[in-house]
Amino acid sequence: MTKGINWLAVLFGDLLPLDWRSQFNTDFLNHLLLLVSWREGFTKKGFVFGFQGIFLGGMFGFPYLLAASYEAQGDPQVVLLGVHASQGVPVESGQR
């Protein structure tokens, strides 16, 4: 069985050869974990959400992004930066 419920064995099987697939999978796992954790401010909730993003994938990620965009009232800067949005300088259109 190479798909579905056996995904963890496939993932670790891809990580062991240390080729391009293992690098891609490692980078993708780090992206899922660290992006959500950083966005939540590296709190306990952020790490729980990060691991849920890894293990549940889109079943967690899509509702998470929907809730984040609703909470940010559609502002993409707030959606991307999360708790760090209030610390940044607002970007005005036409200025760089």
Question: What would a concise description of this structure say?
Answer:
With 96 residues, this protein is mainly α. The chain has one domain. The chain has helices at 7-15, 20-39, 44-56, 58-71, 76-81.
Principal-axes geometry comes out as elongated
Secondary-structure-derived class: mainly alpha
The amount of beta strand, in percent, is under 5%
Number of strands: 0
Report Rg: 17 Å
Oligomeric state of the chains in view: single chain
Structural overview:
- It is built from 5 helices and no strands.
- It has helices at residues 7-15, 20-39, 44-56, 58-71, 76-81.
- By secondary structure, the protein is an all-alpha fold.
- The protein has one domain (4-84).
- The model has no long low-confidence stretch (mean pLDDT 84).
Question: Could you list some keywords that capture this structure?
Answer:
about 100 residues, mainly alpha
